[in-house]
Specification:
single chain; 256 residues; mainly beta; 2 domains; seven-stranded parallel sheet; five-stranded mixed sheet; 4 helices; 15 strands
């Protein structure tokens, strides 16, 4: 991937290649990803590079690399599809119907404390990154902040939606959202752990949802403090084959 090494490492690779001196690619400070043709040649991005995404579809792997390593500005018509063996792929921007024909995105991310990542997420408009089909959406720690920025297809069918937040700040932005505003579609396995349980009232599932497993794990009372304040019978899950409520999670049972 073109973001996997530092500028200095790349320069050494190009300058010294079997004793042959090669032309050094010029490092870039400002890049707009709008058409795939822009990356027909190798591009180096400086650590302070600003990358603007506009009318572009990119792999889930590339999205998180950009958010982690560059300053990202999300413009119109940005979508994400799944990768094959971790490629940094892009293609022309596409609509939901075309996006659904591509490999389903699969987010399985855990971000370490990273000021740049959080600043990027704060700048991205809500519901501005389209996802066609999502097979797995598993987010831990600071990666949970991206949840409000995603827009899933109305007929999305997900194998697993899983959030794990051991600290309150991991969900600080998401819990500010209105209840019943985060669309997930159909979900077979829904798992929330610790402070991530507070997000439960924000989620919206398909009216025909049939869930294999609904699992909540709450080792502390504060993990469910927000949920127990909502009205009884106000959280709709659809049909659930297996309900797993661990420890303090049983307190939310009247809300279902």
């Amino acid at each position: 991937g073109f973001l996997s090494s530092t500028v200095e490492e790349h320069r050494r690779e190009w300058v010294e290649n079997g004793g042959t001196v090669l032309v050094q690619p010029q490092a870039i400070d400002l890049l707009t990803l709008a058409t795939p043709e822009l990356l027909t040649e190798t591009i180096l991005l400086n650590p302070e590079a600003v990358v603007t995404l506009k009318n572009i579809a990119l792999s889930d792997t590339l999205l998180f690399k950009l958010l982690d390593k560059t300053d990202v500005v999300v413009g119109e018509n940005v979508s994400v599809f799944g990768n094959f063996r971790g490629e940094d792929c892009i293609r022309a921007g596409t609509d939901f119907e075309e996006l659904c024909l591509l490999r389903p995105a699969s987010f399985q991310e855990e971000m370490q404390p990273n000021t740049r990542f959080l600043e990027n997420i704060a700048r991205i408009p809500n519901n501005s990154i389209k996802l066609g089909k999502v097979k797995n959406l598993k987010l831990e720690s600071y990666a949970i902040h991206i949840l409000l920025k995603l827009k899933l297809h109305e007929e999305n069918e997900m194998e697993e939606f899983s959030l794990n937040a051991e600290k309150k700040e991991y969900v600080s932005e998401v819990i500010r959202a209105e209840n019943n505003t985060i669309w997930l579609g159909k979900v077979k396995n829904l798992r929330l752990k610790s402070f991530a349980i507070r997000i439960l009232p924000k989620l919206v599932l398909h009216e025909e949802n049939e869930m294999e497993v609904f699992h909540l794990s709450a080792g502390e009372k504060e993990y469910v403090s927000e949920v127990i304040r909502v009205e009884n019978n106000s959280i709709w899950l659809g049909k659930v084959k297996k309900l797993e409520l661990e420890l303090f999670a049983v307190k939310i049972l009247p809300k279902l």
